[in-house]
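Deliverable D2.4 — example input (structure tokens):
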């Protein structure tokens, strides 16, 4: 039996905690409570996290029966067999999973294998995956249901149930009829899929009565139809304990599965007496949902079959008129509070939209700044590359300059450079002044003529030039050929009588003759020396 699990599937607030408390006392059963739970998925890495659930005040608020052991006692006892076996996205994302793996079959199989008795799973988040779990895990599957009006009102005891039901809308895949309900009633979807963030989103944005009941009733209708086709047993919590025939059917089936000694005589799910106005409001929303389901491909006969099942388990409520009136008044006050919450959420939504728009503008600015920064980074990188190239070029130029300086140093330190130093000095001394003379001589068409014209003004220089040309035939030919000096070879010889020179002239003549290695005027030496002194 230990490998033949029993699943009790239901929506929230359908009496699953009561049924779990009775089955938990059955000998031979090992009962797991809501193992497919967002808290369990979170605790799959640290089992101590399960201790935050099951406070006594919370149980009283939810009208749950008092349990002799904490909710998750059995799960904690078989740790770590299920360590990291349940991914958070499986809890709600796989609500309508079509394959065993996506439905969490591996997680349930691990728990079944670790169970010391016949495993029983009481689950409020698995009804949409009954076919996949039957395929992957096997066992017996029960669907526990309740009349939708009282069940929806029971959701109002805690905002968690409304928000958690809306998180089911994140499931992938989501059946087409439920997609149609979300679209028709403009049910907002949280922009995140993690449960805690989505729950916060929905808590701050409550739905009005029509949208809230439409979504709940769509789930209720779809899941009851699915369970009718795939579950092994349907249990109406409204009829359990009230209808002897239904109670007998349930106990007999469970007994055949090895679950005995059950007593459901104290089962008494609350059934309200609704006013005509309330009934009309519920019926109006249900009619719209039926039309949407038919538009999504449902045949009218499927809806009629659900209506017959529902009517067959409609409980009679003999509450007195005064109690019914008080209950109706209380429900109207709750609807008024809901309406105020919806209006307040609308204002907050406007603020949220403004903040979201501002945030988006800031995001676009950040993106633009990022692009500008990337551009500047590229420019800086290019400048850095250019700087590095210039540095390399500077290094090459410095190396070339150093090499040239080395060649210059070698040249200026050579013997030939030192030997030609007098010639360079002569060029600087003679030809540079000659060049200036030529440049300052106007009216000459050729350099040679301008040179001759300039020398003619200085007879002594002319005589010295004649002497140099006689001693240097190569220079004479160069002047004739290159500079175009006509008759350089026949330059007139200036025979000036030294005796006609003044003592000062004789002294200058002898100085120049000495420099040019020419004969000096011996008769004038003494006079020259005297004059110079």
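Example output (designed residues):
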């Amino acid at each position: 039996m230990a490998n033949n699990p029993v699943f009790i599937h239901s929506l929230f607030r359908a009496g699953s905690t009561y049924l779990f408390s009775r089955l938990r006392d059955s000998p031979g059963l090992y009962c797991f409570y809501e193992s497919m739970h967002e808290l369990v998925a979170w605790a799959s890495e640290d089992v101590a996290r399960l201790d935050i659930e099951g406070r006594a005040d919370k149980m009283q608020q939810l009208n749950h029966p008092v349990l002799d052991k904490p909710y998750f006692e059995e799960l904690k006892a078989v740790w770590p067999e299920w360590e990291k076996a349940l991914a958070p996205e499986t809890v709600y994302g796989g609500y309508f999973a079509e394959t065993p793996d996506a439905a969490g079959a591996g997680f349930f199989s691990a728990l079944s294998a670790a169970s010391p008795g016949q495993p029983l799973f009481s689950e409020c988040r698995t009804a949409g995956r009954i076919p996949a779990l039957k395929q992957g895990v096997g066992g017996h599957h029960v669907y526990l249901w309740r009349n939708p009006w009282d069940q929806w009102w029971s959701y109002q005891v805690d905002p968690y149930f409304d928000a958690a039901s809306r998180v089911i809308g994140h499931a992938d895949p989501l059946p087409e009829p439920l997609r149609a309900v979300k679209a028709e009633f403009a049910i907002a979807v949280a922009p995140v899929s993690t449960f805690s963030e989505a729950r916060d989103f929905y808590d701050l944005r409550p739905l009005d009565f029509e949208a809230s009941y439409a979504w709940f009733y769509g789930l209720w209708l779809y899941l009851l139809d699915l369970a009718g086709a795939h579950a092994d047993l349907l249990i109406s919590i409204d009829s359990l304990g009230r209808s002897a025939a239904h109670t007998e059917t349930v106990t007999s089936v469970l007994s055949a599965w090895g679950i005995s000694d059950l007593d459901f005589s104290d089962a008494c799910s609350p059934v309200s007496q609704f006013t005509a106005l309330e009934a009309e409001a519920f019926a109006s929303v249900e009619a719209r949902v039926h039309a949407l389901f038919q538009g999504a491909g449902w045949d009218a006969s499927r809806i009629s079959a659900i209506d017959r099942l529902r009517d067959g388990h409609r409980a009679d409520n003999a509450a007195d008129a005064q109690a019914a009136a008080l209950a109706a008044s209380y429900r109207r006050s709750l609807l008024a509070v809901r309406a105020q919450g919806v209006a307040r959420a609308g204002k907050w939504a406007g603020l949220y939209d403004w903040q979201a728009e501002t945030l988006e503008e800031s995001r676009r600015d950040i993106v633009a700044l990022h692009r500008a920064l990337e551009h500047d980074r590229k420019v800086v990188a290019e400048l850095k590359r250019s700087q590095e190239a210039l540095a390399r070029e500077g290094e090459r130029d410095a190396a070339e300059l150093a090499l040239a300086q080395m060649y210059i140093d070698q040249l200026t330190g050579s013997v030939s450079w030192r030997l030609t130093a007098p010639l360079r000095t002569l060029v600087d001394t003679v030809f540079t002044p000659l060049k200036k003379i030529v440049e300052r001589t106007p009216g000459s068409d050729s350099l040679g003529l301008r040179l001759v014209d300039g020398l003619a003004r200085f007879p002594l220089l002319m005589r010295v030039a004649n002497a140099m040309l006689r001693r240097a035939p190569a220079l004479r030919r160069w002047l004739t050929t290159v500079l175009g000096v006509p008759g350089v070879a026949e330059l007139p010889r200036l025979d000036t009588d030294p005796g006609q020179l003044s003592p000062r002239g004789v002294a200058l003549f002898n100085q120049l003759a000495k420099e040019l290695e020419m004969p000096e005027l011996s008769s004038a030496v003494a006079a020259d020396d005297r004059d110079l002194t």
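Residues 321-412 form the longest helix (92 residues).
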